[in-house]
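Running low. Any example?
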Amino acid sequence: MLIEQLSIAYKCHSSIGNSLNLKEMIHEVLRTFVSESYAIYSEFLIKDELNNLIKIDSFGRINNFDAKKYISYTKSLDLIIDDNIRVLKINLENGTLFLVFKNICQDCTFFVSMFESLISKLNISVNACINFEKLEKTNELLKEQKTELIKANKTKDDFLANMSHELKTPLNSIIVISSTMAKNKDNKLDETQLKNMKIIKKCSEDLAILINDILDISKIEAGALKLEIEKIDLKIFIENIFDSFEAVFLEKNLILKKEIKALNFQVYSDEKRLSQIIKNFLTNAMKFTNEGFITIKLLEFEKYFQIDIVDTGIGINNENLENIFDRFQQVDDSRSRKYGGAGLGLCISKELASMLNCKLKVKSEISKGSTFSLLIPKNIEEEIVENSIINQEVLEKKVDKTDLYKSLDLKNSKEIYVLHLNSVEQFKITIALKKFGFLVHPFFNIEEFFSKIDLLILNKNNIFLIDKNIEKFESIQKKFEHNKNQLLVLDELKNNEILFEKIREFLNK
């Protein structure tokens, strides 16, 4: 008898908490409780927010069972004799479980004791199911809200972009006309009119900058801003920016200096966007520097170049440095009123720097000035390529073609040559292979390939990755009739890991 009771208790205990779905979990509990006890029927109800009883599930058969009849029984466990049935009512924290026994003469002492011991576990399981259901509903609601927010944000961005374009057309006309009239070639304007015309021109230019900033933010958020990667000489880059800003700084009685401390100046990036970041830094420096000088510095480190914009301006409190690159942020409202600006320039700079795999740094001291730094990596990353527009002209700048012959004097050298129909894909493959430590050289067109292949193929250590869809592919295959192991067809090796493994197999021979 004892063994049988232990078995029943174990089965009933094990039936609780096997699912986070309330109905599934309760169904298993009710089925087990009825099967293992003398009960003929079981039912579980919970109260809604209005205190109404809601039936979740039941098991077994009975005629005209009404749970509301037993609502006055409020103990954690009640055994109720009603006509020709016994009702065991188990009151939980978030629900009520009923077990109905038909034989009122049957001794239910063991079952009452057992079910009483299960109340704690039932409470935990039911509460877990209810909380999980609430969490799922909350997550669904959050997903819906996120979708709505994305949709609303896109609508806003589209509106801003369209409105900005609509505003730019008349604004450009105002700038051109006011600029022309401000020159006063016919001497028809008096001093007051000239002053007013210059104010119109200045305000129009400020508004044009704001509109362009809004357009850039919209493009960045929409993922529509594409980079144009090219080879940049940072020395020339700095000198061009210096020349374009020097006169502007002199008008404000500020001195613009430059310091170039680098041996190598070549880097691959988007010149337009790098220039935009540095110009934002310079504009900020000029705005918040009343006297003294601003210095543009170019420094070279092992893995990156650093461009510093150092000013002798009013400086920034340390507590305000954390959000200096946030959208629409000024250090305080008084600055916004005094110096103007919407606080978009530095935010855009941060977004552009992230897209270019660059980093921004700032340090400042009140009344002594600030230093804004742009760190540009020397090696272009594959992630940048995926969001870039790469032109054939840019690719031709990427590798010095004389490098293709350097390995010919080294009989034991092992190098990889790539020819792909799509120049962007070719650049991606080149970058990916270089990241794995391979020495890689791209061909820039089919003519270059045929002009050099006869010489390059003589070195048995060289390997060639060729796009199957390239023009004259069959003619290319014939070149490798006696050197088939040196040719890898890219169309058949779409997975990078497989490609790298094939290359390793060849290079390790």
Remarks:
- The longest strand covers residues 39-47.
- The chain is about 50% helix and 20% strand.
- Residues 72 and 380 are 76 Å apart (CA to CA).
